[in-house]
Specification:
mainly beta; Pnp Oxidase, Chain A; 8-stranded antiparallel beta sheet; 46% strand
């Protein structure tokens, strides 16, 4: 039920990150972006350009506190086989106290054909640090 007097926006602390069907228990954050490839042009006397989507990209990242050798195992698998690992990454928001949840239920975004991109940390040592947070970037083929 939606509150009568107060709004209840989504609490982004409520949710899960699921990687190949397994919840990342050490997940700290997750962002998934849809980036349209936008064509833009003007004709004579146009004050503003016309725009059209020609395609898109899906990118994102998740931060996890390292508690398993999962990433190192994926890297070793690639080195051994030469096959790029493709993942299914899901972001699941389930704040049942929010207005969004009251109207639409939980929000699930599923990225398929996700490939890890950027620097992939194998180890991190720092005399001033206290815990290891790995930020993993990815690009996905599609969302379903």
């Amino acid at each position: 039920m939606v509150n009568e007097h107060n709004t209840s926006p989504i609490n982004i602390r409520k949710g899960k990150v699921i990687l190949d069907g397994v919840e990342i228990m050490d997940g700290v954050s997750c962002t998934i972006n849809f980036i349209p490839d936008v064509w833009s042009a003007r004709q004579l006397d146009d004050k503003t350009p016309s725009r059209r989507w020609l395609g898109y990209d899906i990118t994102g990242n998740f931060t996890r506190r390292r508690s398993t050798p999962w990433l190192k195992e994926k890297i070793k698998e690639y080195i051994r086989t030469g096959r790029t690992p493709e993942l299914t990454i899901q972001g699941y928001m389930d704040d049942n106290g929010s207005d969004f949840y009251a109207e639409h239920g939980a929000d699930l975004v599923t990225c398929v054909g996700a490939v890890l991109t950027g620097d992939l940390p194998l180890t991190r040592l720092d005399s001033n640090g206290d815990i290891v947070d790995d930020v993993i970037n990815f690009g996905a083929k599609d969302i379903v």
